[in-house]
Write a structure and sequence with these properties.
CATH class of the largest domain: Alpha Beta
Helix content: 40-55%
Strand content: 15-25%
Structural class: alpha/beta
Distance between the termini: 51 Å
Shape: globular
Largest sheet: 6 strands, mixed
Number of strands: 11
Strand order of the largest sheet: 2-1-3-10-4-11
CATH superfamily of the largest domain: Periplasmic binding protein-like II
Radius of gyration: 20 Å
């Protein structure tokens, strides 16, 4: 009862949802909530504002490219590039960059629909949601950003060591329908475990990552499927134990955690600016991988600026050990995640057609110029 009251109060304070379909209820009860969110996004699209990416007096005659990102480790190119001016230098003199920070995937999708941003770094499930609800019109995925960076963490004192130990347990995810929530539900099903709302005895509790820390410490949840840096923080600060790294579940250990999406309108009208951005994105990705220690420090400084708090060095190191900064959007993992979401009742009644969600043509032009292998 105390847990129920706690989660209800927290949910009331945080109605702005997080990612990906960034995560409790059965498919029948989840769908209406998910539908309301998507309806709100569609309504925002109906009242879309004209693009303001064209030159304006305030921009000194330059075009303005409006770019979204989250204060997340998995958005490292955005955080580092924002901190050190990498993208501003790359876009000059054609355009200046107007950064927009979001805390939830649905909010960024609403901004795309409303014509308020042109590009954003975002998780896979919000991109899927925005594409499906706009009937393939609103956005395209144009590059990858991060692969990996999520894990199933259990409280060390629970004795959980294998899937069968989850009977009767409470497991948290960041938000109903988000990337980790979808993966958690699919994994439980694959192990023959049934959710409480489907007549089983495992309870999935979608709750924000900071509140997972609180519930871990209070011993009111038994485990959490969490993205970085929260998985590392649960281990370092809340008595958690790593059960497994999500990379262990995927072929070649790769799955998309964040990628770059662009408004189709902006891509159509300003392909040259998109190419400049992606060239800088590719070069920064390469720089991060070659200068990881320095990159971590720049990223952490920007996190402190954006959120008021830097991460402990051990958490930062642990987090980066479980992720890969990459240009590759790992397409196959997105399609798999979409299937899992549909099977869980989170993507409507008809299986979505995602055949047009990617446009990697600009990225491949950049890679070809650099003598790199194109991404199919």
């Amino acid at each position: 009862m105390r847990l129920k009251l706690f989660t209800e109060r927290r949910a009331a304070k945080k109605m702005t949802m997080r990612t990906a379909p960034t995560q409790n209820s059965s498919p029948r009860t989840a769908c209406p909530a998910f539908a309301l969110l998507l309806l709100a996004v569609m309504m925002a699209g109906c009242s879309a504002k004209p693009s303001t990416s064209l030159p304006s007096p305030a921009s000194g005659g330059k075009a303005v490219i409006r770019v979204g990102h989250f204060p997340n480790i998995t958005h490292s190119q955005a955080l580092i590039g924002k901190s050190n001016g990498w993208f501003e230098r790359a876009m000059a003199p054609s355009a200046r960059v107007d950064w927009k920070m979001f805390n939830a995937g649905p909010s960024a999708i609403e901004a795309i629909f409303a014509g308020e941003i042109d590009i954003t770094y975002i998780g896979p499930n919000p991109a899927i949601s925005g594409y499906v609800r706009s009937r393939g019109e609103a956005l395209r995925i144009v590059a990858g950003a991060t692969s990996g960076g999520a894990a199933l963490v259990v409280r060390a004192d629970t004795g959980i060591t294998k899937p069968e130990d989850f009977h009767g347990r409470k497991v948290a995810s960041p938000q109903l329908g988000n990337t980790q929530d979808v993966a958690l539900r699919a994994w439980l099903q694959s192990k023959g475990l049934r959710l409480r709302e489907k007549g089983g005895d495992v309870q999935v509790i979608p709750i924000a990552n900071p509140d997972q820390m609180t519930l871990f410490l209070r011993k009111q949840i038994d485990a959490a499927w969490a993205p970085e840096p929260w998985a590392s923080r649960l281990i370092r600060e809340a008595g958690g134990k790593l059960l497994f790294d999500e990379r262990d579940l995927w072929a070649n250990g790769e799955f998309v955690t964040a990628h770059v999406i662009v408004s189709t309108k902006f891509l159509r009208e300003h392909r040259d600016l998109v190419k400049k951005w992606l060239r800088a994105h590719v070069e920064l990705t390469e720089w991060i991988n070659k200068n990881l220690a320095q990159a971590k420090q720049i990223l952490n400084a920007q996190l402190k600026k954006d959120t008021g708090k830097a991460l402990p060095q051990q958490v930062l190191d642990d987090s980066f050990s479980r992720l890969k900064v990459t240009n590759d959007p790992v397409k196959v993992s997105l399609f798999t995640s979409a299937k899992w979401a549909f099977d869980s009742g989170l993507l409507g009644r008809e299986r979505p057609d995602l055949s047009g969600i990617y446009d990697l043509s600009v990225l491949n032009e950049v890679l070809k110029e650099k003598g790199a292998k194109p991404i199919p």
